[in-house]
UniProtKB/TrEMBL annotation:
The keyword DNA damage does not apply. Residues 1-22 are annotated as: Disordered. It comes from Streptomonospora algeriensis. This is ABC-2 type transport system permease protein. Signal peptide: none annotated.
């Protein structure tokens, strides 16, 4: 009797048929993510672009003569404005790249439980982008220290928001993008949608000056990330900002899962 037949007679499935469960799915997603050159390039670009933008902002602030005693995380909002889209690209390609190449069929054959596959992708992507975000935040603080020297204030809150807060924002934004990627199945579509939500809508809101639109935009992902990174209390604190960011990520992932479960690969 073969091993598979013996396992079947005992009412169990061989390990290969189970696909290693959730740990096996996570290991597979980890290998796929870091096996792509684009992952390394985009995350490295995110950290370097953050540091470069922080350097430009610090030099501009120093030239203005209005430096005072800046907090360690003074420049994080400005320095991540553009570099965050490198993280968005990684998040989008995590799922849309598989649809484009047809690799999603192999993924779902290996891990037929689609919920398990999505949890594995989200876990791996979340860890990777959180780490990249923390590195980007630390780079910003390092640049701030290099430019302003002893004038910088290194209180615990500003350092934590500047490092862990940036990591949390990047992770939340990446999971939001992952959900949109599943929903739209298009790299361009997911990235353009995130650009619209994160960049275009706040700019439009500022130009129009409508109170209702401003209130709505203040509770969207980009604005929710600001108190998380800066520790600001206006229009709300970092606790509510974290909940809003997590809520948007969960909403996008749920919608993406609904589409994933109803469509073929």
């Amino acid at each position: 009797m073969t091993m598979a037949a013996t396992a079947q007679a005992r009412g169990t499935a061989p390990q290969q048929a189970r696909g290693g469960g959730l740990p096996g799915a996570v290991a597979a997603e980890w290998t796929k993510l870091w096996g792509l050159r684009s992952t390394w390039l985009c995350l490295a670009a995110a950290v370097l672009a953050t540091a470069g933008t922080a350097a430009l902002g610090a030099l501009a602030l120093q030239a203005s003569g209005n430096v005072g005693t800046p907090a360690a995380n003074t420049l994080v909002t400005a320095s991540t404005l553009l570099s965050q889209f490198a993280v968005v690209a990684v998040a989008s390609l995590t799922v849309t790249g598989e649809y484009a190449t047809g690799a999603m069929r192999t993924t779902l054959t290996t891990v037929p439980r689609r919920g398990r596959m999505l949890i594995a992708k989200a876990a791996v992507l979340g860890v990777a982008t959180f780490a990249a975000g923390c590195a980007a935040g630390a780079a910003t603080i390092a640049v701030t220290a290099a430019v302003f020297g002893d004038a910088v204030v290194y209180d615990t809150a500003s350092v934590l928001h500047g490092i862990v807060g940036v990591g949390g924002y990047m992770m939340g934004l990446s999971l939001f993008t992952l959900g949109l990627g599943l929903l739209l199945r298009s790299t361009a579509g997911a990235i353009i949608t995130v650009v619209g939500v994160v960049l275009a809508l706040p700019m439009i809101s500022q130009m129009i000056g409508n109170d209702t639109l401003t209130e709505v935009v203040d509770h969207m992902p980009a604005m929710a990330g600001i108190p998380l990174m800066t520790g600001a209390d206006d229009p709300y604190g970092w606790g509510l900002g974290s909940l809003l960011l997590a809520g948007w990520a969960v909403l996008a992932l749920v919608l993406g899962f609904v589409v994933l479960s109803r469509r073929d690969a």
